[in-house]
Design brief:
single chain; 368 residues; alpha/beta; Aspartate Aminotransferase, domain 2; 2 domains; 12 helices; binds pyridoxal-5'-phosphate
Length: 368
């Protein structure tokens, strides 16, 4: 039995009719950019996030970039980011010309370690960008406490954790501005690129709406140097359909993770995901760790099981960030995670038998 790393088949089947109807509705409306669908999705996603506002944008990266622009962060400012983040969080800081200050994650969760934040703060620090990695909410109470004590902005990167909570509160509702992505493989995925920001700050919303649309409130009046970072009507209409099913898909992901947890218990050479008692995990990815990662990945591939590595090279060792002068060994936890992590197959609609088969195949692997 071949088991792909991920599949859209069951998700698509569940929303096929409603999605095609929504696409037809947009097609027939003859209005394709910034209209009723975007407005409605923004209201629905704000409600889902327990925030007052949502601004739809063209991608997760655009959302991160616009957040830092709206907060006025720029050259000379320092921004704390996880050393093991996906590169997008780092890129947003680069785009505004601010200084990236990597902070190591907690080795157990892989999320930003709040205890290490204070030591990284200088008089130039302006913001903290927690990333809810793989779908587990960061320890937001601890992060917010540090931010308040030092008068810093908080910008969550919630691209992987739609629907997760920290102490019962949804991710995407803690920061001053919160960015998310609806890239197709995310837990809430469009049929193309899309993203959003959530916030309770009406003044920031006003700026974001201007920034995403050519710096223009009124057509052909350019107040600031804005961008074209708008969410399409078509993607908004599709996201409205899928948002209704997100809770169901999240429960499926959590069930699959529970089956993996049970099936992989007591393997001495394998670490399973650890979730904080105060957080929930929506399992965008189910990531195990082992020093035998590459051999295990080959073993699974030889048995027809797809896996992936999120992410093989931490940002500080990427060629794009060579100019920052970081070296191998400088962020050992991020480097260790990159060397040992392996994402197992997980998608809504995957069956218990498929999870069992993956676990069985892992148990047959003999680490040497
Ligand atoms: C996917 C992702 C992004 C970027 O989103 P895009 O929509 O692809 O631009 C940013 N941060 C994290 C953690 C992501 O997983």
């Amino acid at each position: 039995m071949r088991i792909p790393f991920q599949s859209f088949t069951a998700q698509n089947a569940r929303v096929r009719e409603a999605t095609l109807a929504a696409m037809t509705r947009v097609f027939d409306s003859e209005w394709y950019v910034l209209g009723e669908e975007v407005r409605a999705f923004e209201a629905e996603y704000a409600a889902f996030s327990h925030t007052a506002h949502c601004v739809g944008v063209s991608s997760g990266l655009a959302a991160l970039h616009l957040a830092l622009l709206a907060l006025g962060i720029g050259p000379g400012d320092e921004v704390l980011v996880p050393s093991n983040a996906y590169v997008a969080t780092w890129l947003a800081v680069s785009y505004v010309g601010a200084t990236i200050v990597p902070v190591e994650p907690d080795a157990a969760t892989g999320n930003l370690n709040p205890a290490l934040l204070a030591a990284a703060i200088t008089p130039r620090t302006r913001a903290i960008m927690p990333v809810h990695l793989y779908g587990q909410a960061c320890d937001m109470a601890a992060i917010i406490q540090v931010a308040r004590a030092h008068n810093l902005w908080v910008v969550e990167d919630n691209a992987q954790a739609h629907g997760a909570t920290s102490q019962g509160q949804p991710t995407g509702s803690f920061g001053h501005l919160n960015a998310t992505s609806f890239y197709p493989t995310k837990n809430l995925g469009a049929l193309g690129d899309a993203g959003a920001l959530t916030t309770n700050d009406a003044a920031l919303v006003e700026q974001l709406r201007v920034l995403r649309n050519y710096g223009s409130r009124q057509k052909y009046q350019n107040e600031v140097i804005g961008q074209n970072a708008r969410l399409d009507e078509l993607q908004a209409a599709i996201l409205r359909v899928k948002l209704v099913h997100l809770h169901f898909w999240t429960q499926q992901r959590q069930q699959l993770a529970a089956w993996y947890d049970a099936g992989l218990a007591d393997i001495a050479w394998l670490h399973r995901p650890y979730c904080l008692p105060s957080s929930t995990h929506v399992y965008h990815l189910y990531v195990v760790r082992t020093s035998h990662r590459d051999a295990l990945q080959q073993h699974l591939a030889a048995h027809g099981i797809g896996t992936a590595v999120h992410y093989p090279v931490p940002p500080h060792l990427q060629p794009a960030y060579q100019h920052l002068g970081f070296s191998q060994g400088q962020f050992p936890i991020a480097e260790q995670l990159a060397a040992t992590c392996l994402s197992l197959p997980l998608w809504p609609g995957m069956t218990e038998a498929q999870v069992t088969e993956v676990c069985q195949t892992i148990r047959e692997f003999k680490p040497s």
